[in-house]
Amino acid sequence: MSVFDPLAKGYITLHPAAAARTLARLDSGDIKAIFEVMPLQLAANVLENMTPSSAGRCLAQLTDKTGGEILAKVPVSAAVAVLRLIERDRLKALLAVMPRHAAARLRLRLRYSETVIGSFLDADVVTFIPDQRVGDALRLFRRASQRSGQTIHVLDQHRHLAGIVDLSDLLGERDRSMIQRVMRPASIVLSARAAVQTVTNHPAWLTHDSLPVVNRNDVFLGVLQRSKVMAGEQQLLTEVAERNEIDTTRAALADIFWIGVGALFVSDTGPATESKGED
């Protein structure tokens, strides 16, 4: 297959989840042939809809260049889930062929375990500096593709969080005013190493769509989106429930086994006792 079939392209575009289930069941040769000619964004949409293990199996059939180019277009959360299952040398090879900014986002998320805030943060957010003019800041914000709600974070020269500013406040200021005139201190700052469960029910989510996240050196890393916390927490709870169900099933099977073994002992000793009585 040297050219990707237009009919297949149309079907996958409209039904990426169904296509992902079908492609995951193909043998290695077919997976390699299809993914090597599939448009990169289309391939990324398919991988996004696969389970991490299935996506990892598909990537195993591809060259580092092809796999890296596809993963760079997969949403960060889905890409990280796949990369956590890949052995270290292949992981380094895939990251090496990605655009630098895409690889940096993934490396940042991979530093943290799946249960801490750092694994859920968004690093691609608009930030300002205190001596930036309001007019320039607004133009930058309008051009930016990544936005995190009405709250914009202001960083100093060391990327420490100097404060925050609301978009509505900027719109009411003169273009030549400085950001520092309207910014205010951030009342809530999250640690990237804190467990995500600790902020799931944080009262700040009643008034904030996102909260700033810093590392242990107080360097700003990005924001934690309320929607991602809720989705991530639900996923974690589901995984815990599944593990508990497996443990419960194993315990029940163990009980059945030992009851059966006990019954064998009872049945063996019963007749022997009666025999002694008859003797």
Q: What topology emerges from the helices and strands here?
A:
Blueprint: H1 6-14, H2 16-24, H3 28-37, H4 40-48, H5 52-60, H6 64-71, H7 76-83, H8 88-96, H9 100-110, E1 127-128, H10 134-143, E2 151-155, E3 161-166, H11 167-171, H12 179-182, E4 190-191, E5 210-214, E6 220-225, H13 226-278
Parallel strand pairs: 1-2, 4-5
Antiparallel strand pairs: 2-3, 5-6
Helix pairs in contact: 1-2, 2-4, 4-6, 5-7, 6-8, 7-9
Do you know the CATH architecture of the largest domain? Alpha Horseshoe
Strand order of the largest sheet: 1-2-3
State the CATH topology of the largest domain.
MgtE N-terminal fold
End-to-end gap: 84 Å
Can you walk through the features of this model?
With 279 residues, the chain is mainly alpha-helical. The chain folds into 2 domains: 6-110, MgtE N-terminal fold; 127-225, CBS-domain. Helices cover 55% and strands 9% of the residues. The protein contains 13 helices and 6 strands. It has helices at 6-14, 16-24, 28-37, 40-48, 52-60, 64-71, 76-83, 88-96, 100-110, 134-143, 167-171, 179-182, 226-278, and strands at residues 127-128, 151-155, 161-166, 190-191, 210-214, 220-225. A 3-stranded mixed beta sheet has the order 1-2-3. Helix 4 packs across helix 6 (64-71).
